[in-house]
Design a protein that fits this description.
Blueprint lengths: L6 H21 L4 H4 L15 H4 L2 H10 L6 E6 L2 E6 L2 H10 L26 H11 L5 H6 L1 H20 L6 H18 L8 H14 L3 H12 L2 H7 L6 H20 L7 H13 L39 H32 L1 H18 L4 H5 L2 H13 L6 E4 L4 E2 L6 E2 L4 E4 L1 H5 L14
Helix pairs in contact: 8-9, 9-10, 9-15, 13-15, 14-15, 15-18, 16-18
């Protein structure tokens, strides 16, 4: 029986009702900042902020930083997700340090069915705390010093390749050169691969990694959906930011390397060996602690967990270092390090090529350090203070992550206001804009280490 007396009218009524419900669903969060008396960029239906899709991360960071120039923070929407853009340095310090326990998650989705999601970027809540606490001791200066020989071997192969290219007057594309270099370093210390000679295992590794960085259009669409759709729907659809092929390969490589080392009683000073040690400690219910003998002045900056609430610090019962967990930590090291190292070195090379005086001063510092220590060593590198300044300045002008994100994990009242941010609200920090602001860096366009 027709409700309106006409089946056609009933059909149109149902369609109109569905359209209204969809419209209401898409719009019902757009009053978020207005309700909290926070200035915000007016959203566009469905996409929220069109510039977030149309612009690169660098251009987006600059666009956002230039919006509301007199405000220390304001809101915008990524699709339906309310995001607070924070420009005030003091509030940024509160978010990243003092009030860290409110903002520990990065906002990346954790997909249980994807083994590679079990990493520091994707894990959330107590699982993230437990992993962060256990991984902290693996990044002390003492542990990095132990890996120096492998880093030096990779660097020697890089310089040999450059010398060969120069002797034959070849044009060298810097980014590709440094991407191969960074992939080799991480493949060596995070997966235990030997790049000193050609072999099928390293060739397959490079091929797989090139596929990761040369993401297909299909995988880009999937990644976009994973980042924008509700997590429940993502899980229901079985979507993952990492392809099934790369998941399978990384886990297989991890198990193969682990078994080979155990069968041949091989102990190697690398990140992979430290992860195996964490796995053994976890199986024996031992906790990972940061020994004071392994620390120096820099290591005190590492342990962000000191700002976690005492009640939220986890015990040691959670099993995080399964073979899949080790694969996830090694992979995120690779995924987060290869491109960033390549881009950073390319920018450094660009600026010292444009500034002969800086290049000359760097050369003199390197010669002086080598004369003092005789060989390349951890101590030699630590004496390159001007080199460090040059790298830092290149990072200021060309930040690898121009827009840093955090997620509100518990309600947070913005200091000095009555506005309370709800759980799940995203925080965006425009690193690129801050580091090119003449208010903080006089003549920001000038490369001045």
């Amino acid at each position: 029986m027709a409700v309106t007396g006409s089946w056609l009218m009933d059909f149109l009524l149902v369609v109109a009702t569905l359209l209204y419900l969809v419209y209401h669903y898409l719009n019902n969060t757009y009053s978020y900042f207005r309700d909290r008396n926070i200035p915000y960029l007016r959203p566009t239906l469905v996409v929220g902020l069109p510039e977030a899709i149309a612009k690169s991360q660098t251009d987006l960071a600059n666009f956002l930083y230039s919006s509301f120039p007199k405000e220390g923070f304001f809101g915008y929407f990524q699709s339906r997700m309310p995001t607070l853009l924070v420009k005030d340095p003091e509030l940024i310090k509160r978010i990243l340090i003092q009030d860290f326990n409110h903002f520990q998650d990065r906002g990346f989705p954790f997909i249980e069915t994807s083994a590679l999601s079990r990493n520091l970027f994707n894990l959330r809540g107590d699982a993230w705390r437990a992993l962060r606490l256990k991984l902290t001791p693996t990044f002390t200066s003492g542990k990095l010093k132990d890996m120096f020989e492998q880093l030096n071997n990779c660097s020697n192969r890089l310089t040999n390749e450059i010398e060969q290219a120069c002797s034959s007057n070849q044009v060298v594309e810097a980014r590709s050169l440094f991407l191969n270099f960074s992939t080799e370093i991480i493949g060596s210390v995070a997966f235990g691969l030997d790049f000193s000679k050609e072999n099928p295992q390293t060739d397959e590794f490079i091929e797989k990694i090139n596929n990761v960085f040369g993401v297909s259009f299909q995988q880009k669409v999937i990644t976009f959906l994973v980042m924008t759709l509700p997590t429940t729907l993502v899980r229901l659809l079985g979507l993952s930011p990492f392809s099934a092929d790369i998941n399978k390969y990384m886990i297989s490589l991890t198990k193969t390397t682990k078994d080979y080392r155990k069968q041949n009683n091989i102990m190697r000073n690398d990140y992979f060996q430290m992860l195996l040690k964490l796995q053994e400690d976890e199986m024996a219910n031992k906790s990972a602690k940061l020994s004071t003998s392994e620390m120096d002045g820099e290591d005190g900056q590492i342990n962000q967990m000191e700002y976690a609430l005492p009640s939220s610090k986890p015990g040691i019962s959670r099993k995080l270092f399964t073979d899949e967990g080790i694969a996830a930590q090694s992979f995120v090291f690779l995924n987060g390090g290869s491109e960033t190292i390549a881009a950073s070195l390319s920018f450094v090379l660009y600026h010292i090529a444009k500034n002969p005086k800086i290049q000359e001063r760097l050369s003199e510092e390197v010669k002086s350090a080598l004369t003092k220590h005789g060989v390349w060593s951890h101590e030699t590198v630590r004496d390159l203070t001007y080199m460090d300044q040059v790298i830092q300045e290149a990072g200021r002008m060309h930040p690898i992550v121009p827009l840093l994100t955090r997620e509100v994990t518990m309600p947070y009242q913005i200091p000095g206001t009555s506005a309370v941010l709800g759980k799940g609200t995203m925080i965006a920090i425009p690193v690129g804009g801050l580091q090119m602001d003449p208010k903080y860096y006089p003549s920001p366009e000038v490369f001045d280490p």
